[in-house]
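Researcher: Next entry in the queue.
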Amino acid sequence: MTGPVDTETLSMLKEVMEDDFSELITTFLDDAASRVGQLPSLLEQGDAKALRLCAHSLKGSSSNLGAIVFSDLCFEIESRANDNQLEEIEGYIERIEQEFLRVKSALEKLL
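Model: Structure for this entry, 111 residues:
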């Protein structure tokens, strides 16, 4: 995989989802944008549980679409929030924001 999203995973999803594929992509992008946007304020509030849950949701949905780097970054936040290591999370949020832009750009080309 060289791009932000695994094309083989997307091809299989498109085959399975058929006409609903675009809706799946749109729903993911809307949900992920909202959740990525929540991460900084959750960190600022020191809400480790909400950070963990938000990152967990992002991790699963992005993994299902083949956005492996994005999913791995979300796992890092989930893991650190679970261990209440909030001081380490800020850098990961910045990386997630950047990676989400790459994923979004790649997925929007499929719509």
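Model: The chain has one domain: 7-108.
Researcher: Noted, moving on.
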